[in-house]
Amino acid sequence: MHFSGIVSEWAWRVNDGMPDPKNRTHVEFLRDVLRESGYSESFIQDYTQNLLEGTYKDNAQNRKLDRVGDEWGADPSTPKKKVATGAKAKKKTTTATTTKDTEKDDTTKQSSAGIHGDLKSGDNQDKHDVLEHGFDGVKEYYEKNGIKAEDGKGFKKPAPGSAGSAFNEIVSGEGIHILHANPNMTEEELAEKMFNEYGQTGLGQEQKKSSGIDVPPRLEQAKLAAKGKGTNKKPDNPEAFKKAEQQIATYTKCIIVARAAKDKSDKTNERVKNLQESGNFGTPKPPQTFYGTAKSLKAQKTAVENADRVIMPDGTTLRKEDVQELIRQSGGGLNPSDTATFVEDDKGTLMIQFHSDKTDPSDPQGSKTLTTDMADLQKRIDSNKTLSPEKKKAAQAVVKEFNGKMSTIETTYDDSTAAIAEKLENMDMDAQVEVMQELTNKSKTKKNYLNLAMFDNKGKGELNPKYKIHLPKGADPDNLSDAEKIQAVRSFIKTATPENTSGNKTNPNRKTEADLKVISKLSENLTKKMGKDAPEEINIKKVLAKRRTEVVDLHRSRKEELDKVEPGPPALGDLEESNEVIEGFHLSILDDEPYNENEKDQSKRLKAIMSGTFDIHMGGTVANRDTLRTALGVNSLQEFKDNFRVNEEERYTYGDGGEEGGIVTGKVVYTYVINNAGGDPIKLGEKTYRSSDGPTGTTRTIIKYADEMQQLLKDAQ
After folding, report:
1. Spatial distance between the Cα atoms of 525 and 529, rounded to a whole number of angstroms
2. Structure confidence at residue 85 (pLDDT)
3. What is the largest CA-CA distance in the chain?
C-alpha cells in the first residue's frame, strides 16, 4: 500500500478521522495497518514506539512516513488536541493554592508506559515495569533479567493482588498527576485519557470487563464489525473480535479508575486548602503517589524522613517514627493500605494519606486463609481480658476441637483427585489432550499446566525427578507429547502415598498445588465439554461438594459452642464475629481519639493516625471515618459493637447449576447492625467461606458489603 493509502486507512479507523501519534489507541490502529501492508514487526515496533516517545531515528523510511504526515495536515511528531464530546458534568475540583514553580517538577515527564516523573524517583520504575509487562508478565521479566527483590531474597514481584488491583492502584495514582495539571477534567475525559495512555500497555490488556459501564460507540462498532454475520462465539473475524472485546473491557476499567483518581484528587485538594486556610500548610508541591511494592514502602519512608514536619490532614503534627511504623505495617496489622498520596509544601511540611483501592463497593473488603482465620481466633481468645481463666480454657478447647476437624478436611481435599485421576485413565485421551491445549491457548500468558507440574523452574527447566518413574513406557523425557504428560501426571496423583502431600514440604516426592491443578483443571473442563454425558465420578466440583459442606458447617457449630461457653451479652461467638467484621471492614477508624505524641502505647498512637488518614476508594465511593459513621448510624467503634448482631440465617453458595446442581462452593453468614433509632436492622455485609483457587483450593474467608450497605455508603458521599 502507498504511504498516502496507509495514512488514509489509519485516519478511517480512528473515530474522529484525526490520528494522534501520541494516542496509544490510535497508534495501535496504525500498527494494524502497517502489518496488513506487509511491514516487518521490528520496523513497526521501532517506528510506533518513536511516535509515542516523540523521538525519531533519522532514516529514509521514517522521513518518508513523516512526509506523509504532512499530506494530512500535520507532522506526526506534533500531537493534536482532541476535544471530548458528550462528557457528563462532574463536580468541580477544589484546587489548593499553587504557584507557577510547581509546573517545573519532573512529574511532567512520562515514561514510555505513561508513568509521570523520573523513573529513578520513588517507586516509578516499579509502576513502569508492571504497566509495561503486565501483572503476570512482569514476574517473568524480573526472573529473566535477574532483577532481585529489595531485600535480595528471590526475584522482584509486583505488589500483592491481581492485574485488576494493580491497574487500579497504579493508574489511579497517575490520574492524580493528570488532574494536577488539568484540574477541571471530567470523569469521562480523564477515563479517555487513561484509556489512550495506559489501555494498550501490558497491564491494560489484562483487564476484565466491569458491568454497568457505558462504552463509546466506536468500541461497540468495532466489535460489531468484527462479528459480522457471525455470532459472539464464532465471529467473522475472531482476532479482531477478541481485540475489540479487550478494548471494551479495558475502557470499563478506565472509567472506574478515573472515578477513584477524581475522589483521591478532590479529597487531597480539599484537605490542602483547609490546611492552608488554617495556616498549617504553604504552597504545595505536586503530589507524590505510591504503589504497594517494597520499593514503594521504602520511598514512603524516605519522604517522611526527608520532611521537616509530618502532619495529618487535620494539621496534627506526628512523630516520624510512628509514621515509619505505620508504613512498615502497610498491607497488614494496623495499616491495611496498599497505596498512599503524600503532599509536601515549600517549607518541608508533609501531609500523609493512606488508601485501600477497590474497584467497586461490591468487591471483597477483607480476605484470609482458613489457617489464618483459625489462628487469629485463638489469639483473640488468648488476649480476651473479660473471660475468666476457666471460660478461657473452655473456649480454647472448643476452638482447638473444631479447628482440628476443619484442618483435617482441608488437608485431604487432594485425596479425591487420586480417585478422579484413576477414572480419567479409562476415558478418551484425545479429548483430554484437547482440553489441556484449549486451556493453554485461552490463557494470555500461555500457561501450560502440564509443564508447570512436571518441570522445574516453573515449567521451563528439567523434568522433576519424581515424575521419571511415571512416564509411559518408551517415552522420551526430552520430547514428551501432551498425551504422555497427562498419563504421567495421572499416574503420579493416583499412586502418591498419603504422606506425600503439599503440606509436607520436606518431601521431594510430595504432591504440589501444580500437580493437583492438572487433575482439577482437566476434570472440571472435560466435564463442561461432555455436558450431560460426563460421569459424576470425574466431576471434581461434585466430588468435593460434600467435604466443602462439612467445613462450612463446622464454622457455625464452632460459633454455637463458643456462645455456650459465654452467653453474654454479648455471646462469645457473636463477639468474635464482630471482631472479624471490624477487621475485615476496617471499622477501627470509626473512633477519632486525638493523636497524643506523649501516649506511651504506640498502638494507640498508630490507631489515631489511621483514623484520620485512611480512606477506602471503591470506584467513586469512599469509605472513611465520616462516611462509615453516617452509613452505620454510629459515632464510635464501641457503639458499633453494642449494636452488632449476627443473623443466624445462613445460606450456601453454589456453583454451576445453582442449588439444583448441588455443588456447594461455600457458605454466607449475614451480619447486621441494629440502628440507634430502633428501626429495622441495617444489613452490613456478609462473610463467605469458599475455595480460594478452584475445587481443590483451601478455604478462605471473604468479607463483603451487603447491597444495602453499599447504597448507604454511596448516599453518604
Report:
1. 6
2. 32
3. 89
* pLDDT tens digits, one per residue of 200-233: 999 999 999 988 899 999 999 999 999 999 998 8
Query: How many CB atoms lie under 10 A from the CB of residue 219?
Result: 20
- The pLDDT value recorded for residue 56 is 40
Cell digits of residue 151:
531485600
- 538 three-class SS: helix
Q: How far apart, in whole angstroms, are the C-alpha atoms of residue 63 and residue 683?
A: 65
- Which residues, in sequence order, are CB contacts of 593 under 8 Å at separation 6+? 604, 607, 608, 611
Query: 351 by DSSP, 3-state: which?
Result: strand
Q: What nine digits make up the cell of 516?
A: 493437583
Of the pLDDT bands very low, low, confident and very high (cuts 50, 70, 90), residue 89 is very low
Which of 710, 378, 665, 709 has its CA nearest to residue 541? 665
Of 269, 438, 468, give the one whose Cα is nearest residue 353. Answer: 269
The residue that leads in pLDDT, 335 or 333, is: 335
DSSP letter for each residue of 128-142: HHHHHH-TTHHHHHH
Contact 28, 20 (CB under 8 A): no
Question: Which residue has better confidence, 40 or 343?
Answer: 343
Torsion-angle region of 453 (φ positive above 0: left; ψ -120 to 50: alpha; else: beta):
alpha
Among 10, 620, 614, 622, CA closest to 254: 620
- At 482, is the pLDDT very low, low, confident or very high (cuts 50, 70, 90)? very high
Alpha-carbon span 463 to 478, nearest angstrom: 8
Structure confidence at residue 370 (pLDDT): 75
By the 10 Å C-beta count (0-12 exposed, 13-18 middle, 19+ buried), 42 is classed as: exposed
State how far the Cα of 714 lies from the Cα of 717, in Å rounded to an integer: 6
Q: Please identify which residue in the block is written with the cell numbers 505505620.
A: 326
- The answer to whether residue 570 scores a pLDDT higher than 60 is yes
Contact present, 574 and 645 (Cβ < 8 Å): yes
pLDDT tens readout for residues 128-141: 999 999 998 998 89
- In the numeric block, which cell numbers belong to residue 607? 490507631
461 C-beta neighbours (distance < 10 Å), count: 10
Could you tell me which of 340, 342, 371, 345 has the C-alpha nearest to residue 356? 340
Q: Is the pLDDT of residue 27 over 80?
A: no
Distances in Å between the alpha carbon of 136 and those of 170, 173, 204, 239? 15, 21, 12, 22
* Separation of first and last alpha carbons in the chain: 55
